[in-house]
Amino acid sequence: MEASKAEEMLDIVDVRTYLGIEFGSTRIKAVLIDSRFHTIASGSYEWENQFVEGYWTYSTEEIWKGLRVSYRALATEVYEKYGLLLEKVGSIGFSAMMHGYMPFDQSGKLLVPFRTWRNSTTKEAAKQLTSLFEHNIPERWSIAHYYQAIVNHEKHVDQVDYLTTLAGYVHWQLTGKKVLGIGDASGMFPIDNLSKSYDEHLINKFEENLKKMHHSVHLKTILPKVLLAGEEAGVLSEQGAYLIDPTGSLKPGIPLCPPEGDAGTGMVATNSIGVRTGNVSVGTSAFAMIVLEKPLAKVYPEIDIVTTPEGNLVAMVHANNCTSDINAWIKLFEEFTASLGLEVNREKIFTLLFNKALEADEDLGGLLSYGYFSGENITGISEGRPVFVRQPDSNFNLANFMRTHLSSAFGAMRIGMDILKEEKIVIEELVGHGGLFKTPRVGQQILAAALQKPITVMETAGEGGAWGMAVLAAFQASHSNCLSDYLNQVVFADAPCVTLQPLEKDERAYDDFIARYQTGLEIERVAVEKLRS
């Protein structure tokens, strides 16, 4: 038996393993790490949001099915590799896509189907609250969803007893604790940087405004308690253990760390929680998180102000759309190869097509695409209409086609990042993570050109948020005082990484592309107006 395998077995037996589970937009992933932060087992469950009665949603049945399936796959891998039943771990952490709307009544009943971050139905509420607070309230935020429901006179609002996010909901059901990590909480309601909790002044403003609308609420009583990374967040109950593992192998009593949002786990997974650092997470959505030295000079509707899991201010440039359209085209190529009778796995198709993008013309053949599966706040697009456009004389080849889609995936985010450049925000390091970076160099090189910054990708880039959540669970179990020191001195002390500098010719090409992208947005607006389901 290899020494490393023996050490891993000992970690499992001595309960020095840590479990992170993240509910992403297209996949629920469970990751088990050992005492050296290596992934020793994982499991996943593919899912997709559904558009039901005007809202993007996931059913609660699928939430729990996905949790059980992903955990069962992980536990099975542990048994097959080590011959051990997974009964206990050192700590567990849950994370999920941020924002959205999950309101419950006093009995714990979900009052309306989960409204995800992807919904762009709260424009009126977001605009009014941004004006009232003098603080940007994006359409995705929980408070915008809640206020819009009040404005719309939805019947359920008078019954709301508790309001939380997806991560907060899962954690509550498993522990009985109505708590939330500060990073995720900062996507529900603005955070006071000094108190590290909800901004009391803005809560008072909100409640006074509701009184004028003949609606009364004590907002703090319906929001989850805010916790910082490392703080106690409850233990796994018997009911919770059964919800995760109906076989009964997983035992109750395991400590849980504060549940976090996918933005926070991305910061942890890339060691980007110090000032002047940042990370770019790419998946169904794309967002850049830049840790600020000081507040921005003014309010920008394109920039969210959230926090790190330690509570430090972060400028978040969030684009609702990134890889969905690319994945749809890859699926088309899969169907084509299957129709030819060829057995080509998806990963090989991704690798082949992504690398083809490096052969593109400097002007991308004049091609243009908008991978908008949903509305896009940064560019002012209200609904999703994926669009691909070319002129009759465009150089329409595979390389230009792929490079255009990859460039477009970062388009909205680039527009938001240009605002931070105007604010003279110093960014010393940007780290990329997410599945798009599994193909070496390609996405990394295009992102470097788009943001005109060196982009670092760590060996853990493909692990993503579930691994970052497992690290947060390990941090809690360590009883260390400072998360940034823990990451720098323990987790990432010898982490291998690759940094790519932006190429001057690529920067010029991307500048030309983004000018074409912005000019062509009217095409997208017309598509929204004219193409109705």
UniProtKB/TrEMBL annotation:
Gene3D superfamilies: 3.30.420.40. InterPro entries: ATPase_NBD (IPR043129), FGGY_C (IPR018485), FGGY_Carb_Kinase (IPR050406), FGGY_N (IPR018484). SUPFAM superfamilies: Actin-like ATPase domain. Pfam families: FGGY_C, FGGY_N. The keyword Kinase applies. Residues 279-476 form the Carbohydrate kinase FGGY C-terminal domain. CDD domains: ASKHA_NBD_FGGY_BaXK-like. GO terms for biological process: carbohydrate metabolic process. Keywords: Kinase, Transferase. One of its GO terms (molecular function) is kinase activity. It comes from the Bacteria. Residues 18-243 form the Carbohydrate kinase FGGY N-terminal domain. The keyword Transferase applies. Belongs to the FGGY kinase family. This is FGGY-family carbohydrate kinase.
